[in-house]
Every structure is written in C-alpha cells, then in structure tokens.
Amino acid sequence: MLFAKSLARAWSCACSIVSYSLIVTRIRVAYQSSYTVWFTVSDYWHTVVVDECHRLAADRFDTFVRAIQPSILLGLTATPERSDGKPILPYFDCRPDGSPAVELRLWHALDLQLLAPFEYYACDDDTDFSQIPWQQSGETSALDKLLTGDHVRASLVINEWQRLTANPRQCKALVFCVSVAHAQFMTSILNAAGLPAACVVGETPTEERRLAPQRLNQGELCALVTVDLYNEGVDLPMVDTLLLLRPTQSPVLFQQQIGRGFRLSPGKESCLILDFVGQHRVEFRFDKLLGSLTGQSRRQLMDSVEKGFGALPAGCHIHLQKRARDQVLHSLRTLTQQGWRNLRRELQAYIALHSNRHVLLKDFLREQLIELSDIYRSAKPSGWTSLKRDAGLLQQPQGDEESYFSEHFADLLHSDDPAQLALLQRIAASAGHYTAQNEHEERRLQMLAYQVDGQQTRVGHYRDFLQRLAAHPVVCEDLQELSDVLQARSHVSNRPIAGLEDTPLCLHAAYGVREILTAVGWLTAECRPPFQSGVLPLKARKTELLFVTLDKSSGYHASIAYHDYAISRELFHWQSQNSAGSETTSGKRYLESPGNGWQFQLFVRKHKGSPYRACGAVTLVEATGNKPMNIRWRLQTPLPIRLFREFSVLRDE
C-alpha cells in the first residue's frame, strides 16, 4: 500500500486499487465505507509507505497505522518535527541512539549541494506584532486584521524586493500571506506596481490552480501569492524568491515555506528569501526559526548575530538589518526563564537539529543557553530524566521512583565539594552498586541519601538508598551527567576545615543543612532528629555550629531579624538569638571561649533556600549587648574575595 498525499494518481482519484496487493490512497479514504475493509485487516499489508509522515501523530493516521499493523512501515517527510510537539519516531524502528533510520537535514543537504543555496535577509519592519496570541486559536485572525490593508507595509515589501534584486519582474517568487484576504490584498498591490501576480488559494478553481505554476515558469507571472496551499506536497523548482509576509513561531511552517525555494533548477543560482521581521515580544522564538535554517544552537546563533554568519554552506548568506538584528539579539539574550512545555520543545528541537537522540545535559545547557535550575526546578515535573521522558527520548518502562529521584536531584544543584562530586560520579558509573571505601565515604553517602530524601523524619541507611538508586539505571545516568556539569562549575579546592578534620566537609564549599548535620554526626542512619534553630551545640566535641542567614526578609517571623554581615575577609559580625545574654548558658559559652575549650564553626547563606557556605572556625574578638548579643568573630581562614562580596554589608541584593 502506498499511502500518499501528493502522488498524481492519489490526487486524481481518491483510491486507486492497482491490484489487491497495491493501493495508492489518502487518509480520509480509509474511513469511507466502500474501502474500509482494505484498511482494517490486521497483518494483511506487508509494506506501507507514508508520505508526509509527520502527520502520523494526528488521530486518523494513528488509528489507521495501529489497525493495519504492517510488517514494514516506511515514513517520508521533510519536517519530522510537528508544531504540537508530538513525536512520530515511536511509530518506527530507529537507530540505537534513537534517531531516524535515514536522515538528511537541510544544512547537510546544502553542504552536499543537493539544494540551491540561499540569501536570507531579515528586513526591518515597523509592524507591531507584540499583541499577537502566538500558537493560539486567535493567531490567524489577529494577523489578518493587522496585515490586510496595511499599505505602508506593502510598499515596504515592494521597495525591499526592488532594492535587493536587479529586476523583480524577472523573478519567480512565492509570496506567503496570513489569509485569503491578505493574499488578495497583496496580489492587487503587486499588480498595481507592475509586478504581475496571481492569487492561488484553496478556493481558486482547479484549472486555474493547475496552470498557475506554468504561468510562473514561463514568465507570464513573477509571483504566486498564497496562504497555505504550497507549504508542502508540491514541487516548484523554478521558484527563486520567497517573500515571507506571514510571521510564525513554528519552525515546521518556516521550514516548509523556505523549502519551496531550495529545489535545484537549470539556470537557478540561489534562492532569495526576504523575511519581514516586525516588532515582537522578547519571548518570540527567533532562535528556533534561524536554527532550523542554519543548524546552529542558540549560543552559536548569538555569536553569529553579533559577529556575522560566517560558518554557512557555500553560496549561502544571512543578513539582518539593524533593527531586526537588535530585536533578534535581544530575544536571544532574554530567553532564560523556561516553562516545562517550552523546555520539552527546546529539547525536541535540539534533537532534530543535531540528528542525535543521545543528548548530553552539558551540551544542551551550553548550546541552548539554558540554566541548570530551569531543568531541576522546585515545581513538578522536574529533572533531566523527566524532561527526556517527556520529550519522547526514553523508550524503556518508567521505574517506580524515577520521577522522585529526577525531581529531588534539584537538591544537589549547589554541590561544589570536589570530593563529593567525584563520589557522585563513582556511584553513577557503578549504576548505584557502590561500596564505601572508608569512613569518610560512608558519611558522604549518608549525606547524599539525606539530602535527596528531604523528608525531615524519614530515617534510612545509605545502603538502602543506593539499592533504590540501582533499580533505576536511567536515573544513574542522570546523576552522572548532573555531577559532570557541577564538577565543571566548581571552583572549590579540596581543603579540610580546621577543627572538623574528622568530617568530610570542605572549606568554603556549599552544603544543604541536612548535609552539614549528617557530616558532623547529628543525623545518622538510625536517628534523624528535627533541627530548626540557628545554632547547634555539639557537647561531646565542644563545638557549636553557627548557621547564619543574611537576608531574613522572607520566610522568618518579624522578631527574627538579626544583623549579620562580613566586616572584612577576616572579621564577621554576628547577632545571637534573642535568648542569648551574658548570664545565659549560651552567652557564657561565647564569652568564655576559647578558654573554656569550646570552638565555633560558621556556616553562612545569603537567604532562605540557598545553600550554606562552610566558612570555617571563628574565634571571639568582642561582644556587646544583651539578648541579643552582638559578637565580632575572627575567621581562622580569610574569606575568598567572591564570598566576602556576597556576605559584606555592601553586598548587592
């Protein structure tokens, strides 16, 4: 069975039964009663070839393919990505890395000179598109209302066409409009300017539609003005000019339109593309459109927009006029806040761009300029594994705790302790089947278990945690990739803390409070008491941990408003709890140190929700006031410059 959209036989007759072993048809025919029997017999058809197979995810296609169950399903498409983000690859047997069996992307075809080179101009356009509801039901009507009848923009289109080509009358152009009314309007404008054009839309009589490409090829017309008629399923190799008058956020539609001009034809040197950009909101996705044309990531696009598009296939050229360039660059720079749906689309587009379903987290973050916190976020869903599964990259069944681990890895984003990150990599490399090599590693493993398992009262041994982790190999891959990214970002040296050398804690590294409490033995596999105070006296070792939050404007009672800040790299001002005074047990502990044998360790964070920095041992310089006490501590190890700037009274808020 040849399931076609554009073959002449299928167009001329709804269903051509060449024999009982070969049928050429279209999708709607499968639902007509006279033919239903031929399309619903399971296993009857050995081979089914689907042209324009990106339509498979539509309901009718899905029902059809699942009903006939052919031995071989061959799909053909120039745009495998759908505008709604639904994947089509699950219908097929892909390569081991999950990519299509055979693939040739636009930029590769241009490199191989299988397509005509292009000259793309993003033209300045004052039309304000900022209120258009992109990818919503009112998009087309809003664009129609804005563009149809706009004589200023129409004149700009003609002027730019005349400026950028020697003689528009000699061109063979396709003009893409937003609606029938817009197409009719532009046709009249072009004809009035002495540029013979024909409006060809769905309502155009069949014979007139059939003859229009011939009239263009013969030079009788220099432009065919259309809406969606020529987006796909048609071969017009003579077309050498494209006027994109219908802005879109859909890379699929963009590729379909520009693809009409890339076919090779005798005497055709290149294809001129004039894209009238207009004024858009900052979230308009120029990166997706230009990425589909160039194969460049967002980071590469930003460099190219700033410095020029140098790495293009031979004969190709991209030029952005000043205002268009500024707007595109601004859009690229402000694409930082990512919603989950956008992230999924980002990942799907990235996969399509690189023709590789084995995507590394570090590459995706770097090339798409995405923050780690966009993926590992506080809201659900969250995590690299969850995102890959949502994007259709993971075919294996989902484990019971896969989402749990992926989401809770967000609690590891602060990690920069080099020894801890190295341990995470070893755990991931062993797929969770890891055995601690010494007491420090055992403590570190327990720190990991309690940091990921954030419930305050849940007690458990790290071995049980590793066993749960080992049941989810895909999550171990997630941990490996995350730890690689975190290790590359770490600037902390592996330096023990004076007075806490028996713990795994590293000087100036970042930790969650659960990690710190586990490292010093307050939390154990058998005991997990609650902790909410700002100080923790450990009587057995005569050490008190001081937990300092600099910005208490959020999440604290009004009475809790201590004044804590770094005076210099060596001095830190700390205000005690309101209950501490010169006659109280805690106050005496501070005032009588270090002669009483007590030592104090300082852990500082900027605000609630951020990690603590292990600032090391501090000794008393002076104390004033009472309930609360104002104490000046001297740090045994000076703060690094970057931490002093964060913690000083002059810090940026």
TrEMBL record:
Residues 163-306 form the Helicase C-terminal domain. It comes from the Bacteria. GO terms for molecular function: ATP binding; ATP hydrolysis activity; DNA binding. PANTHER family: ATP-DEPENDENT HELICASE LHR-RELATED-RELATED, MITOCHONDRIAL ATP-DEPENDENT HELICASE IRC3-RELATED. This is DUF3427 domain-containing protein. It comes from Thiothrix unzii.
